[in-house]
Amino acid sequence: MSRAELADLVEINVQSVGALERGDNYPSLDLAFRICAVFDLPVEAVFSRTEFGAMSSELYAKRNGASS
C-alpha cells in the first residue's frame, strides 16, 4: 500500500504519513485506531514505544530453529 493510499483511507495528507513513518510525529489516539482498522490489527501490533525489529530477521531465526 502506498503512502497516498493510506492517507486517503485515514483522511490525512500524505506528508503526515511520512512524518509518522519517520517518527517525527505521533498519531492521536483516534488516528492510531483508524490506521489499525485499515490493516485489521490491534494497536499494539502497529504502534510500540520500543523499535520494531526487521520481520525478515525474525522469520529467518524461526526457520533455523532459533527462538526470538
What can you see in these coordinates?
This protein is 60% helix and 0% strand. The protein has 68 residues and is mainly α. It has a single domain (3-63), classed as lambda repressor-like DNA-binding domains (434 Repressor (Amino-terminal Domain), Orthogonal Bundle), CATH 1.10.260. Helix 1 (3-10) packs across helix 2.
**Gross geometry:** elongated
Please state the CA-atom Rg, rounded to the nearest Å. Answer: 14 Å
Query: Distance between the terminal alpha carbons, to the nearest Å?
Result: 28 Å
CATH architecture classification = Orthogonal Bundle
Which percent band covers the strand fraction? under 5%
- Unreliable residue stretches: none
Please give the count of helices. 5
**Mean pLDDT over all positions:** 87
Helix coverage percent: 55-70%
Name a few traits of the molecule.
single chain; 68 residues; mainly alpha; 434 Repressor (Amino-terminal Domain); 60% helix
Tell me briefly what this model is.
This protein is mainly alpha-helical and 68 residues long. It has helices spanning 3-10, 14-22, 29-39, 43-46, 55-63.
Write the layout of secondary structure elements.
Layout (H helix, E strand, L loop, with lengths): L2 H8 L3 H9 L6 H11 L3 H4 L8 H9 L5
Helix pairs in contact: 1-2
